[in-house]
Amino acid sequence: MTQHDNGYRCLWSIALVPLHSLNGAIFQHDELDLKRKNHFVRIDQTSRNMELKAMDANPNGGGDMKKSASSRFQVARVDTKENQGKENGADVQSKPNNQRKKSFEFRMKSHDLPKIEIGAKSASSEGPLSIGPESPNATTFSLSGDSLRSRSSVDGYNKTHCVMNTMEALPCVDHYRNVFSATGGGNLKARPTLAELHEERDDEEIRANKKEPVKIYDGISQGSPNHTDNIQIVSAVRFGWIQGVLIRCVLNIFGVMLFIRLSWVVGNAGILQASIIVLLSGVVTTITAISMTAICTNGEVKGGGAYYMISRSLGPECGGAIGLIFSVANTVAVAMYIVGFAETVRDILVRYDCLMIDEINDIRIIGSITVAILLAIALVGMDWEARAQVILLGLLILAIINYFIGLFIPPTNKQMSQGFFGIKGEILEINLHSGYEQGESFFSVFSVFFPAATGILAGANISGDLKDASKSIPKGTFLAILITTLVYLFMAIFLGASVQREANGIILASVTEVVNVSGMVGPSTTTPGLGASVAGADPVFTERDYSYTREFVGNCSLVSHGCKYGLLHSYQAVEMVAAWGPLVLAGIFSATLSSALASLMSAPKVFQALCKDKIFPFLVYFGVGYGPSDSPRRAFILCFFIAFGFQMIADLNLIAPLISNFFLMSYALINFSCFDASIARSPGWRPSFRFYNKWLSFCGSILCIVVMFIINWITALITFGCVGSLFLYIHHRKPDVNWGSSTQAHVYRNVLQSALKLIRTGEHIKNFRPQILVLSGEPDTRPALVDFCTHITKKMGLMVCGNIIIGGQSENLRKLQTEAPYTYFRKRHIKSFYSATTAPSLQLGAQSLMQNVGVGKFRPNLLILGFKSKWQTDRPETVQQYLGIIHDAFDLKYGVGILRVKEGFGLDIETNTTVFDTNLGDDGSDDESPRETNNGILNQVSRSEQQSKEVTEDEEERDDNDEERDVEKSLTPKKKGGGDEKSKPTMLRPQLTELDEEDHGDKSVEPQANNPLLLKKLNTQVLKTMNKFRNKEQGTIDVWWLFDDGGLTLLLPYILTTKAIWRGCRLRVFAAGTKSGDLGYEQRQLATLLAKFRIDCKDMTVLPEINKKPSEESVKLFNSYLSKWRLEKGETKEKFPWKTTDDELELVKEKTQRQIRLRELLLERSSSASLIVMTLPMPRKGTCAAGLYMCWIDTLTRDMPPILLVRGNQESVLTFYS
């Protein structure tokens, strides 16, 4: 007895499924499955049984599990729940013990194999089992986040087995889908993360940590007891390329022009120029269609049509501007088509003398009723609208055929009186050239005709309702352009060859009719040759005296009111030529109403897409959709009122030029989008449509702009003004969107090319810019330090915030990969980069940053550190490392700056406490070593900044939205309930400064931390400290330029005075004098030097007293600080390198006295300054220990206003040469 016959009997199936197609949805025997855009497939029990029989038909399936090396197919074994209980029941008792044991061991080995859930979808319960990927009976494997593993149940693993025991996922379309897209959803499969594949974690732990969202449909959870197989999902209507694109484009392109204005165009422009107008419109639309096709085939196109394509290509600025204007243009087009329809109805009323009021007001009344009816049809839904379009297209085709048939039917007397003589060579010759009416020209006629060409976007505008927009839009649009262009050309030629420009409409009376009339009224008194006149009525022309010749019919002087017929004067020329006039009327109605309906459907769809992107926040209200098709009812209502207002103009020739420029601008940007994406050379630009050319698109864009100005330069300027204003508004708002536009590709490409170009350019003093690497740690913990450096580099140089994380890489991955600093930069309007590194010590981390941060010429040249305020109590090793960082910086030819603010830099205040948010989210709780965030206090700061009334504006920086905000008046934390966000409870926790990160000992929270008064005081203090350098400063910036370091000590304060925050401060320069020099001469020399450097400074002081000895009290105070840093008996320099010896003290005695004396002078002259910038003492290697150097720095900066000690790299940064 074989294993196949034992208790663990398995059903084997040879599933020939290509590996590349193992990306289908999960099918489960006893559950519903979600397949392609929320369509539920209920598995038929009958078809399932048929498939089981088909699989049972392979008795040797269990013994053949091999796959050839060259095969592309996967062999899988599947257990079924239906037969498992039966097989494990009766059959197992008849097995020998050894076979039962073997089966048990086999099951245990198979327990860890991945589970393949398999099911079938069948259109019928009969027929062989198909293995094709598109077959209704196709068997599909699941490749969800764990590839061949199922996320549904761990217990099910002992029921299903597969030869591929791996967590790897095969390629699947869901892996590359945007989860936030309209077609996405919560049921998308995801590839395993890098951590799941790479980390040493148990498979069950990985599955347990996966948070699978509960799929709920119509309020019923799939996993709930109430879940049944009878759930019906109403799917949205989707159209193919014929119904969705071709029909819409054809109807829209024909629109109002084909039957109502084409005759007028031919009458004015003649056959040749009319053909040029049609072909020029065709060229513009064809080039635009080629560009649009390239964009459409470069990925899935969502709802929004032209707006979607332009915004995703050129960014939200261009896309938002043109999207709003394009929506308005489509809405105005509705009014244009309705006016064309109303004109036709009005002419019928005139013909039968049935006017309601007058000709103009009748158009308005008919148009108002029509637009209301179209709104009702649009609100019913896309399905009904599409059905109506098919009926209208049928009427339109019949009307066109009816016209061509009428050309070959002999004309009646009435037709000849109105200018139609059939196809005649003489008429063709006369109408071949132009004959413009007064006030008309080629471009004025072109501006009236061109809106017909705007119909090419009718299909693209409903791209969100197409089954496959990338294929439907190109196919339908190109075919529509070809068909409509040919029809327009043939109709224009035949109209020009058969109808005169002008006709008087006189119908000749027979002699019998004249005699009868004369006998009734008496003898004729008419002038000979003019026929009979009846009681003063219009002259009667008889067939005896006249005939229907071109000369007679074209003589407008024979009628008192002038000619009212012919190509120039009658908009119903096509109807007059047709075999049956009423059918042409039906065609006019179908063309105008279908175009109006298509535009009324397109405009709200585009507008809805614009609103959903939240480019204009005040328009979000109109983006709400209703029903399965996401119908924009509010946008429909808005478009209705706009169309209603414009149709009240009641003149088609006035409305058409208004929208021509708007559509031309849209076409220009579509072409430019294709050109821009091509020259950006982004790897993501891979359109499957290959028959495009970037230069052709560029020429199409230029052609559209030229035509705009030729049609009407005033309207073109207005259009550019509207687009430009909207562009600037969106650019000012900076919407938080990232669409991967070609603008981003251009930025990267330009930066890369510029960086490479700079490498080949030598350094020059005039182009020196301070490029700062600031050791800020996490930037939000030292906002004052970051703000100060920002004032130096803003719009001038590079700034990088460096964070040294003490420890290894593996335990600090989240900190290394976090994007939180850039979020903080955006909130505080800081232009900076962020770089983090891990290292076993602070000095090694600083070395890593200084050596590796930057690229090419974009590398820091100035290192700025915060002063180590706890140097007396900290471990000596960290103090030694602090000095080592300064030495390393000088070795790498960095300038060095040390900033000290007595209040601290923000959250590293002297109390060694900070305020943190205790409501940590999932990310915080899941982190094994969570970062102690300061969201609580930062939220208060953010609210403070938003409530700030006084905003510091820099005239040179207004276009960058980087104004510095004054928060001095709003330092008190906001009360609960006073804002959009509720105040979160806060608590005190210890804060480790960056330079203290090696202290990993646990620090208990001080008992007084729970004191609410202390908490309030601390919050206020932190707020003041964090915003120390964000308020306008007044007073002086004192520059103590003691030694020539290349000019950096002088350049930095000058740069600060050019910024908005420090503009109210004046420079004061203090310089050291010689021991026996002429004070006046030295001061004049200093003034001359500053003048040569073009640095405006009125207050300069030379201080010869710097070289005097300090007071005994100051010396004693200095010695008290130095006492613990002096080498004692029994200690060696090798063991305590941070301590100084007596020999070293004697060697630098004069230098030490100078630092003490400088402190006295600082207290005397600069204690009230807003900022002090002083030359940093130079620590010479081997002669200045860390303790002694920190004593120097502390002596100079203690209890001072904000002070920056800076030292250049002894290379010139200032020059007086031009």
Automatic annotation (TrEMBL):
Classification via Pfam families: AA_permease, AA_permease_N, SLC12
Domain SLC12A transporter C-terminal: 782-1218
GO molecular function, a single term: sodium:potassium:chloride symporter activity
Keyword presence, Glycoprotein: yes
Ranges of compositional bias, category Basic and acidic residues: 78-89, 966-984
InterPro entries the record matches: AA-permease/SLC12A_dom (IPR004841), AA_permease_N (IPR013612), SLC12_C (IPR018491), SLC12A_fam (IPR004842)
Alphabetically ordered keywords of this record: Cell membrane, Chloride, Glycoprotein, Ion transport, Membrane, Sodium, Sodium transport, Symport, Transmembrane, Transmembrane helix, Transport
Subcellular location: Cell membrane
Membrane topology (UniProt): Multi-pass membrane protein
Segments crossing the lipid bilayer: 245-264, 270-297, 318-342, 362-381, 390-409, 442-464, 476-497, 577-600, 635-656, 662-680, 701-730
GO CC terms: plasma membrane
Coiled coil: none
Listed Acidic residues bias regions: 952-965
Superkingdom as given in the UniProt entry: Eukaryota
Domain Amino acid permease N-terminal, first and last residues per copy: 165-204
Domain Amino acid permease/ SLC12A, residue spans: 244-773
Any single biological process term in GO: sodium ion homeostasis
UniProt feature, compositional bias: Polar residues: 932-945
Annotated region described as Disordered, given as residue ranges: 78-101, 121-150, 915-989
PANTHER family: SODIUM CHLORIDE COTRANSPORTER 69, ISOFORM E, SOLUTE CARRIER FAMILY 12, CATION COTRANSPORTERS
Family: Belongs to the SLC12A transporter family.
Protein name: Solute carrier family 12 member 2
Organism per entry: Elysia crispata (lettuce slug)
